[in-house]
Specification:
single chain, alpha/beta, four-stranded mixed sheet, 28% helix, globular
Length: 249
């Protein structure tokens, strides 16, 4: 799906990955689930491009529902896969955490799990070899992506800012559709290692001035980064004031 010229999404509001496209090639940001490979091929065909045009995969963090087809691109096509050093072991399958699920509703949980299983979530493929990027680094890749460290969801969570696309890709630093409750709008993401730190980290997004805020789960947000961060902060404050709502099933 084209969001704007040079900016495409594959997947859907359950799980999404993104393509930044320019004359020098394609940067893939996050790789969804293994079953999104077919979605990738279809989007490339619609663009008149091929897998050979992909220059790199940038991972916003090392969780399995963002690794998807990354190893397939690396192994079969020589595409380098980048991740922050603090999440490199996670991406290689050598480390993980077990954060609480938090609030949930049966219907949305079942819908999310059914979708994820259908896209290969029970057979996650970790990345055998990764390259590491650092906070503030601007990569020599299509879109000239800049890395913004956002620790909290995981130690190595990052956002990827692409000024040419007016976009910042935030992974699970926030969500616009909570996969466990079905609640829509910018809000804290579930499965977060350190929710308080994740909330503080969002302030680092404001200087981008990005129009598009693109999460790994949920609808693309076109209302600007300040409005998105403000909404997440309000949602977190509302949840803190309403503990019964947090535990409601």
């Amino acid at each position: 799906m084209e969001l704007r010229p040079g900016l495409h999404r594959i997947g859907n509001d359950m799980v999404a990955a993104y393509l930044v496209v320019d004359g020098s090639g394609i940067t893939v940001i996050d790789a969804g689930l293994p079953g999104h490979w077919r979605d990738l091929e279809q989007e490339l065909a619609a663009l008149g491009r091929s897998v050979e045009d992909i220059r790199a995969v940038l991972l916003t963090h090392g969780d399995p529902d963002h690794l998807g087809f990354a190893e397939r691109l690396r192994r079969d096509h020589g595409v380098p896969v980048y991740v922050h050093g603090a999440d490199s072991a996670r991406a290689r399958g050598q480390g993980s955490t077990n954060p609480g699920w938090g609030p949930m509703r049966l219907g949305p949980v079942v819908k999310f799990l059914a979708y994820a299983v259908g896209k290969g979530a029970l057979r996650p493929v970790h990345v055998a070899e990764v390259r590491e990027f650092e906070d503030g680094e601007v990569l020599d890749l299509p879109g000239a992506p800049r890395i913004i460290a956002l620790p909290g969801h995981s130690p190595g969570s990052v956002a990827v800012h692409v000024p040419a696309a007016e976009a910042v890709f935030v992974g699970d630093a926030l969500t616009t559709r909570h996969v466990l409750t079905g609640q829509e709008g910018p809000q804290p993401a579930p499965f977060t290692d350190d929710p308080a730190q994740a909330l503080r980290s969002l302030e680092r997004l404001r200087p981008t001035g990005a129009r598009w805020v693109l999460p790994g789960h949920g609808t693309p947000w076109r209302g600007g980064v300040d409005a998105a961060v403000d909404a997440v902060e309000r949602a977190a404050a509302d949840a803190a004031r309403s503990p019964r709502r947090r535990g409601r099933r």
